[in-house]
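Limitations

Structures in this collection are predictions, not experimental determinations, and the ligand pose is part of the prediction. Treat each record accordingly. The example that follows, with adenosine-5'-[phenylalaninyl-phosphate] as the small molecule, is included so readers can see exactly what is and is not provided: the inputs are given verbatim, and the output is the predicted complex.
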Amino acid sequence: MLENLERIKVQFKEELNLAEMKDELERIRVAFLGKKGLVTEALKDLHNLDAEAKKTAGMQVNMLKNEIEKAIVDYQKVLEEREYQKELENAERFDYSIPSDKPVGAMHPITIVQKQIEDIFKTMGFIVEDGLEIQTEFNNFEGVNIPKNHPARDMTDTYYLDNGQLLKTHTSAAQNAIMKKYGAPKTGEPLKVLFPGRCFRNENIDACHENTFFQLEGMMIGDDISISNLIYFMKVLLTEVFQRDVKVRLRPGFFPFVEPGFELDINCSICGGVGCPTCKNSGWLELLPCGMIHPNVLRLGGIDPDKYTGFAFGLGLTRLAMMKFNIKDIRLFNSGSLKQLKQFTV
Ligand code: FA5
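Predicted complex:
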């Protein structure tokens, strides 16, 4: 019996060494461990032995069986590795670092307009700052002269976090930190900053209101800044973005952080001012509120309002993109519909 097992072992090793393909391994497995395989037959032969011999031989057969099973599994891994190396050698070489000749992505329409405005203002000496999306209640409200219980807070309800912070309702939330960061202009050259960002409001959503939208804020502070400067920069902004005449109207507007404050509305480009769902049938869209920075806001930012004045504007960037690309419904921007968004990319 033991001699027979030794023969089986030698035969198995010889056959295994000759195997070069995975399917040959399967044939070997069946030949040794299958129903009529050599090891299985040896197990059956155990019946013919007496109890003591059966015990010893039984152990030997089982050991051989385990040895063969393990050898087959190990050899299978060797063959797989060999096959993989062969595939690598034959594979067509592909260099992932070579730039593609096909465009693989495009800028979102809001980003296009944002970049355009940033470029215009940078040439006029503005620096671009990145405001945080999560802000303290102070920065979003008190820091811009909106004390607790002020009615303006109701109009811009937002999402509060457990730690008392909130998702900012307007880019003006960065005003205080920016004033503290740069301080009053020291060289006579006014402080000129642009800070675009995503804003959040608990909003009734319709064609021109989203709960998540973009604004782009601008601020200029110096020792002789007046409403004329404000109007000049607003004109440059709109002329450069639209590259055509656009009708606007300026009217008084109330914001606790500016005095005087203005609303700058744009004639609806969807209906040409006749009235449509986008402009809520008014023919106009609120776009660019602005004004002279309130002395309290300068003071809170560490800038002496008796020495310095400044203007600020809070452009509705998402709405500007709507007007520029004639997009009827603001919900398109957050829809994630590439088919639609692709129409407006350049
Ligand atoms: C403000 O947020 C002021 N912080 C703007 C400001 C800055 C005024 C500096 C004066 C000085 P308002 O809530 O009106 O103002 O929003 C400004 C612009 O953001 C609006 O004119 C509009 O174009 C856009 N906007 C406001 N709410 C939404 C909304 N839910 N969806 C889309 N755009 C919006």
